Amino acid sequence: MLKPPKRPENRTAVVELEGVRKVFDGETVALDGVSLTVYEGEFFSLLGPSGCGKTTLLRILGGFEVPDAGHVRIAGQDMKNVPPFRRPVNTVFQNYALFPHMTVFDNIAFGLRMRRLPAETVRKKVAWAIELVQIQGLERRRPHELSGGQKQRVALARALVNEPKVLLLDEPLGALDLKLRKQLQIELMRLQMELKITFVYVTHDQEEALVMSDRIAVMRSGRLEQVGLPEELYERPKTAFVARFLGRSNLIEARATAPDRVETPHGPLRVRGGLVPGRRYLLSIRPEKVRLARTPWNRPNAVIARVHDIVYTGAENQYILEAPGGELVAYTLNADISEPGYEEYDYGEKVYVYLPPENLVVIDEPIGNEPGTATL
Ligand code: ATP
Fold first, then answer.
1. Is any atom of ligand 1 closer than 6 Å to the C-beta of 54?
2. Owning domain of residue 266
3. 174 CB under 6 A from ligand 1?
4. Do residue 198 and residue 81 come from a single domain?
């Protein structure tokens, strides 16, 4: 992680949503009762697949959509009947939405001039914003004379120059190539930390959300599936959907036989405990937590499998394993050293798999309705 985790305790709420609902055309439920608090200075991401309601939520915060039910408060003020331009927020859109006939300077100055600030103040503030996003020298160009990355910097400057309490960003890096995207991710994080503005950031890119955010809300079909710190969502997903949406997971159906023991398609396994005997659960284990060896483990939670497929990604070898209880995926680091845990395996080779109890996350969802789940 590039920054220490920011926990929300003892912080001031800036964005408060309560039971927000939005239905389009009387049938498409875009938001199904969303309640959420974002705190001052947070980099907060809304993450989820296409159509889950992220943009609708952001547009409701910006005042571009009116909720059918529920309350929205920003900086302590109820936003009912408050038009977009009177809200203490600014939005950065994926498609930049710059005024095509205006120069870079005039685009950035637009909001300040609307507020009728004196020309000298406008000049100073625009110069500050231009330096902030490092586009010095481009002031007189028009949008069609800029690259995608430069356009997005102008859009950012145009939003930041108004010093909003909350900056709403709707997939702002979505149209950029990977290298530029990575570079701007770091710049956005730097800006956010420097200016201490609250960011509400929409993305469907899980890696982007994990790298950039203080907290993430994973959305699914108009609802919040889980809200938490990036490492909480990754290490302790509460649902199979979160386990699958953030990275890859092995999902295994289980029935508790004791508080720390379960029966699974891979045989009996030990887990950390706290289970209700007789109850059904799902277990999730990340592929990088699955351990492989050429010799038997001689301990519980060992499974014998065969290498079915190998995906070489450069940094990792990803093994798709066939076990009697179903498929397992394991990643090993391509470290080029011959120590236990770093061995390389061939197609068809027999491997001894160990599923460490401390890395088996128990999900309180009984049925493995997600594809690829090992079922009992
Ligand atoms: P994406 O990542 O594809 O942008 P999203 O998570 O932002 O998706 P939304 O754009 O919020 O999703 O859409 C949520 C649901 O509401 C979708 O089913 C979408 O088709 C529908 N929807 C959004 N805006 C409208 C609209 N103006 N009229 C009708 N339906 C809409």
1. yes
2. 248-374
3. no
4. yes
Token digits of residue 352: 């001894």
Verdict on whether the full-model pTM lies above 0.90: no
Average pLDDT over residues 245-264: 94
- Give the residue whose CA is nearest to atom 5 of ligand 1: 51
Ligand 1 centroid – CA 364 distance (Å) = 30
Structure letter (DSSP) for residue 145: G
- Residue 240 domain-assigned? no
Residues 223 and 275 in one domain: no
Domain total of the chain = 2
State the average pLDDT over residues 156-166. Answer: 92
If we measure between CA atoms, which residue out of 117, 294, 14 comes closest to residue 108? 117
The CA-atom distances, in angstroms, between 236 and each of 180, 229, 328, 358 are 31, 10, 19, 11
Q: Is there a contact between 129 and 161 (Cβ–Cβ < 8 Å)?
A: yes
**Which one, of 205, 211, 191, 287, lies nearest residue 243 by Cα?**
287
Q: In this model, does residue 1 exceed pLDDT 50?
A: no
53 C-alpha vs ligand 1 centroid, how far in Å? 6
CA distance 73 to 91: 17
What SS3 state is found at 108?
helix
User: Quick check: 368 pLDDT over 60?
Assistant: no
For residue range 316-359, list pLDDT tens digits in order.
999 999 999 999 999 999 887 777 777 889 999 999 999 999 99
